[in-house]
From TrEMBL:
Protein name, per record: Exodeoxyribonuclease 7 large subunit
NCBIfam families: xseA (TIGR00237)
A single GO cellular-component term on record: cytoplasm
Taxonomic lineage from the root: Bacteria, Candidatus Kaiseribacteriota
Similarity comment: Belongs to the XseA family.
Species assigned in the record: Candidatus Kaiserbacteria bacterium RIFCSPHIGHO2_01_FULL_54_36b
Reaction equation(s) it catalyzes: Exonucleolytic cleavage in either 5'- to 3'- or 3'- to 5'-direction to yield nucleoside 5'-phosphates
Amino acid sequence: MEYPLLQKLSEWQKQQAAREGVEPYKVVPFVTLQAIAAAVPKTKEELCAIKGFKEARFHKYGRALLAITGGTAPVVTTTETLFDEMDRVQTFLETKDREAEAGIAQAYSVSDFLDVINGALLRHHARVRGEVVSVDARERVVYFTLKDKEGESVLNCLIFRSTYDIAGVSLEEGQDVIVEGVPEIYKPSGRFSVKVQMIEVAGEGALKKAYEVLKKKLAAEGLFAPERKRDMPLLPRVIGLITSREGAAIGDFTTNVGQYGYRIEFIHSSVEGKRAVVDLLSALKTLRTHAVDVVVIVRGGGSLESLQAFNNETLVRAIADFPVPVVCGIGHEQDETIATLVADVGVSTPTAAARAVRASWDAALQRMEYCQRTLFTHFTHMLSGAHHAVSTLAIRIVHPVENLLLQFRHLQEKFLYSAHHRVPSLIGVVRERLAFYEKTLFANDPHRQLQLGYSIARVGGKVVRSVAHVRRGDTMDVRVADGTIVTTVNEGTIKES
């Protein structure tokens, strides 16, 4: 369901109820308005297919509702078909006169009669072009009068101040304008007028002049200054998108914005002509309540007249005051709207707007790919260096070991050779030495000396080597070849040399 559209339908319901002096639900039930907002009918058949909206209600309100949902009424002058529709009222009144003459109908009160007239007029929502001949701007309502450039026909008009401010048109005498609204007779005064719902400057020249005046005014305020504009958020995730669901702009944007996992908060809005101002303002108001990172407004190219909503001062200031950066991608290369100039990022096409949104994502992806390539290159170099180091270390380790093994084998072979040829001679030498040692041991064997008559004397277990080592009365053990003699020393004599 389009909530901005439902809001407009609800406002129309309240205004119409006020005109008719009835409760709003008696005009069109709110549930029916919801169904209209959901279906967005464009034709009589589509509108009458909605539950609760039959032929009789269409004759009374159908044209006004189709105008709100997107239908456009033809532009007429003050002397054309708008007043021709009064023929139907005249026919109705003549019928009532005949009934009154026949005595079968009662007279209307003035109020009821005007209700009949206004009910008939309400169906004739129209666009009227004329020259402004007078303006009376009051606090809540602006009254003005239109006339044909040729002829004496005039038309009284009024527009509520809130609607007038949104329109962004400063009415001046002699100005050529197009108004859109519903005719009615004001019951307290019986004055016929058109209650204007939309007003715009007519003619390419007048639009261009208004464009230049507003552009100069906002430039003097610094709204176009680069230092006022905000940078695009880094890696935006939530995008508020405002455009028409029917145009090609939405496809151009979503196709080119890239697949970076965005969440797009889409708000449908008309983007054609002056009527789009209300929709665009409503969409911006809605997105203020959403946690978006950036707002994008896009539409295709067109004439200055079709793009005039984006040269509206109220809309331009709403864009400038929006709390997050706004990207405007409107028209083609030759189209430059004031909304584009005041936006934080102003580009000429929906595709360019998509590229502006995705720029930080593209840069991050390129940086990541560069880091990936750099990391792979560094890793390859490190792996190659490590392989070279391992190879060098292996050479340093393996060659010494191989040399040691060769030396060991050489020594082994040398030892085996020596052992094979020198062992016999070594054995002979050992035998000779053993024989020599045997003879030496035999010659110095103490037992052999004892057998030759020698003896060994000990006192206290110590061998006596001198007379001076014994005293009289010492017990002496004297060992001889076949035993030991124990004796007492009585006297010792030192041998003189």
